[in-house]
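retry 2 of 3: previous attempt timed out while embedding acetyl coenzyme *A. Reduced batch size to 1 and resubmitted. Inputs unchanged:
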Amino acid sequence: MAETITIIDDRTGKQVTVPITGGVFPSSALRQLDPKLRVYDPAFLSTAACKSSITYLDGDAGILRYRGYPIEQLAEKSTFLEVAYLLLNGELPTDAQLEKWSYDVIHHTMIHENMRKRFVDGFHYDAHPMGMFTSAIAALGTFYPDAKDIHTKESLDKQTLRLIAKSPTIAAMCYRFSMGLPFVSPNNSLDYSANFLNMMFRIGDDHRVNPVLAKAMDLLFILHADHEQNCGTTAMRVVASSNADPYSAAAAASSALYGPLHGGANEAVVHMLSEIGSIDNVPTFIADVKAGKGRLMGFGHRVYKNYDPRAKIIKKAAYDVFEVTGKNPLLDIALKLEEAALKDDYFVQRKLYPNVDFYSGLIYQALGFPVEMFTVLFAIPRMTGWLAHYAELLRDDDQKISRPMQWYTGVDARDYVPLNKRK
Ligand code: ACO
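retry 2 succeeded.
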């Protein structure tokens, strides 16, 4: 069967045949028919805006792979820093490469004192940590004169290293500021995730990070490291396409992630579960959702029309964490909600399954994070994915500055009406 598509413009009878490669045909076909022809595709439901070799996702089959490796295998066998190396470089590191990468990351975790003293300390006492994190990421770039040197590989690698290494430090600093707690410096003897937990929660000299909890944190970081062209990554790419520095682009991506329909959903899930309050209220809540009174947060996904593979892994990991911390009382409500939704026609017909955010909030809460920190916990590992996409875009000769077309639906030309003649 021919792997081509033929498009006929019935207005003119003109037709064009172009190849379909990997399920994709080039939009240049439309320009050949009529340079003014546009595809109306709000929210990019059918548009591949780039080629990418970083993450593969099949939403119908519930498949997620980083650089070809199934997420389940990475979750079981890998570490976050190894996965970060894989996403950025395309291959798993050798022993020596991993040792150098880990050393480099750990030795770039410190931030300039002025970031804390002059920048973070300037926030209002109850500033949302995600707003602080996003602003701090943008501000971080101003500390490095070479931040804008994005076309030299050595410089871009340096900015990438800085952003990945310093994101946990900034995140912990924002949290400690909002709690009125003194800032804890990075500890070079701890790995990435344990160091983050230490900077977050250390109180007193005998504080030790529980290795089970550090492992769970690392697992959550792996699961959130990349997810191809989601809203935040698209923001990263659009800003990168203007050749803005990676700090500014990452701040834009972080802003996109902040929204409750994206990375803010895990926060919304915990609020929702708390409001439901008891498993007895689950049927009424489900009925309300079906009646259009709000959404079942943590359910549904633009691309997964099957169980989100990350949700499965997180659900399992939750029990390891609860063994150390004690069970999160909201778990029973979540389980009941999932059970009720998965056998309800409304959710079945719309292919609405738990997404990554449905259970992650429960683990975060058990680990001791306040809900305001949840999206920040998503942003820390996603920084790696954003930067992998940033570098990929810069290397892609097909790319230019992003500039979508529009379908103008406003009024036609008309003459200016003086103020005293307007009705
Ligand atoms: N609860 C109830 N109904 C839902 C839900 C939900 N969580 N999600 C989708 N629907 C319904 C919609 O009302 C719509 O019904 P209709 O066809 O009768 O109008 C249908 O399912 C399709 O929904 P859309 O909004 O068109 O789906 P879309 O792909 O645009 O949205 C999204 C995906 C934003 C994730 C959506 O499912 C949602 O709002 N979920 C809750 C928020 C959430 O958990 N977000 C996290 C996503 S994962 C992440 O970003 C990391």
